[in-house]
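User: tokens in, sequence out, please.
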């Protein structure tokens, strides 16, 4: 088996060779250069103070803000939730900048602005318009500095272990950092107040995250070389954009080609369906299971089970995707959604059904975080990866934000809970069908590499 000492250049061997043993797969991790591990450290530090992590502080600041300002609790929750919807919508633009300018040129200024905007929450205080504006700016800069950059950095360096990289360095790390930030946030709010809490977080971003990106964040040499070739080809007008291959054996296509492909349409809709269904259950759990007279404490514990299982699911999916030569590897995780929904819908027959179902939903929720970026890189290469993954995140994230609201609104209008579950189960079944319909991965080093993707496109 080839080693990944030259990450981009060894990709074709990986795709064409027989699947390695699990021991060889793990042993090959040691062959990555030091630059890869420095970049991984930069990613971990960035994710440790990302908006996806700091959002856990919202639980502890909502009450004090409402008490100080006289605003209603729902109004405060809405104020802090809106930026989390708006921020990811700009990820396609961030991805385009990363693809064209490079990770560092985007991450460094955005991280600086993110830290300053977070500290500015202290200045905005109880002025509603100012606070809302600063929260939105902080979310946009924060998502751009982290989620807009880190996926391509990991994909570029860890070519033989992308699934594991997405799982452990991005997905699981957010859960673990979030668990650590939660008690810290509670302590800070009780000590320095809610405004002081964000002042501390902003300072930590400037003192810890920003220097880490300056010192450690680098893209893989193959990605840098490919970007240079792409610019030269464009300047000389001697090659089409799609002809610049960053990774042998994988077509390197642009965004317009990717979004017209059957592969991208299928996996984006698939992830949106399962993500929306899982979030609908997670957010509305207390209402959905109240009809079965399940106590709030049991429901809360079931949600915790989902979150813990998501870490396990993300790690398992990452390893499975790396070692599989077929996109059918995602089918078991899509099946977890349907089975999990069927179990929780019958939670009234036994609490164990609730716990088992939520655990399966958690496994699928975690796997979802690895499946999207892995398939984007595997089908389309790295040339426009930032844009493709950014657009995928924006669509899936928007659906995940809206479906719980729509489900809640339907129940408020008197729609039966069984009907709600049936709708979610249909979404899960459609996702399984879509997983089976995913086209085969592009053939290694094929002269028709791009057309292998497009052949399943129109």
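Assistant: Sequence out:
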């Amino acid at each position: 088996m080839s080693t990944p000492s030259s990450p981009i250049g060894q990709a074709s061997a990986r795709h064409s060779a027989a699947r390695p043993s699990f021991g060889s797969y793990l042993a090959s991790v040691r062959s990555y250069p030091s630059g890869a591990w420095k970049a991984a450290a930069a990613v971990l530090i960035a994710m440790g103070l990302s908006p996806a992590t700091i959002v856990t502080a919202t639980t502890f600041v909502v009450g004090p803000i409402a008490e100080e300002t006289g605003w209603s609790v729902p109004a405060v929750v809405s104020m802090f939730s809106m930026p989390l919807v708006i921020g990811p919508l700009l990820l396609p633009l961030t991805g385009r900048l990363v693809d064209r300018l490079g990770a560092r040129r985007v991450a460094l200024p955005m991280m600086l602005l993110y830290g300053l905007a977070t500290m500015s929450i202290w200045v905005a205080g109880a002025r509603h318009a100012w606070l809302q504006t600063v929260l939105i700016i902080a979310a946009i800069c924060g998502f751009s500095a982290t989620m807009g950059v880190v996926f391509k950095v990991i994909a570029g360096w860890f070519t033989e272990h992308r699934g594991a990289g997405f799982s452990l360095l991005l997905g699981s790390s957010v859960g673990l950092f979030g668990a650590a930030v939660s008690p810290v946030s509670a302590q800070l709010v009780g000590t320095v107040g809610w405004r002081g809490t964000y002042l501390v977080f902003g300072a930590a971003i400037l003192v810890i995250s920003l220097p880490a990106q300056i010192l450690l964040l680098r893209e893989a040499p193959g990605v840098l070389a490919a970007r240079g070739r792409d610019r030269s080809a464009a300047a000389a007008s001697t090659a089409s954009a799609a002809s610049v291959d960053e990774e042998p054996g994988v077509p390197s296509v642009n965004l317009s080609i990717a979004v017209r492909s059957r592969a991208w349409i299928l996996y984006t809709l698939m992830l949106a369906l399962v993500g929306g269904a899982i979030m609908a259950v997670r957010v509305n759990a207390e209402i959905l299971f109240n009809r079965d007279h399940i106590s709030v404490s049991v429901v809360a514990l079931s949600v915790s089970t989902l979150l813990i299982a998501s870490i396990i699911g993300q790690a398992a999916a990452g390893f499975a995707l790396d070692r599989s030569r077929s996109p059918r590897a995602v089918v078991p995780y899509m099946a977890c959604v349907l089975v999990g929904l069927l179990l929780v819908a019958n939670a009234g027959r036994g609490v164990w059904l609730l716990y088992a179902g939520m655990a399966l939903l958690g496994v699928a929720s975690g796997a979802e975080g690895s499946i999207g970026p892995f398939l984007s890189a595997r089908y389309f290469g790295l040339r426009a990866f930032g844009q493709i993954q950014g657009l995928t995140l924006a669509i899936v994230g928007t659906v995940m934000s809206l479906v719980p609201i729509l489900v809640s609104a339907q129940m408020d209008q008197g729609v039966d809970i069984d009907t709600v579950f049936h709708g979610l189960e249909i979404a899960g079944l459609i996702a399984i069908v879509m997983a089976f319909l995913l086209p085969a991965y592009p053939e290694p080093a094929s002269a028709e590499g791009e057309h292998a993707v497009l052949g399943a496109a129109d």
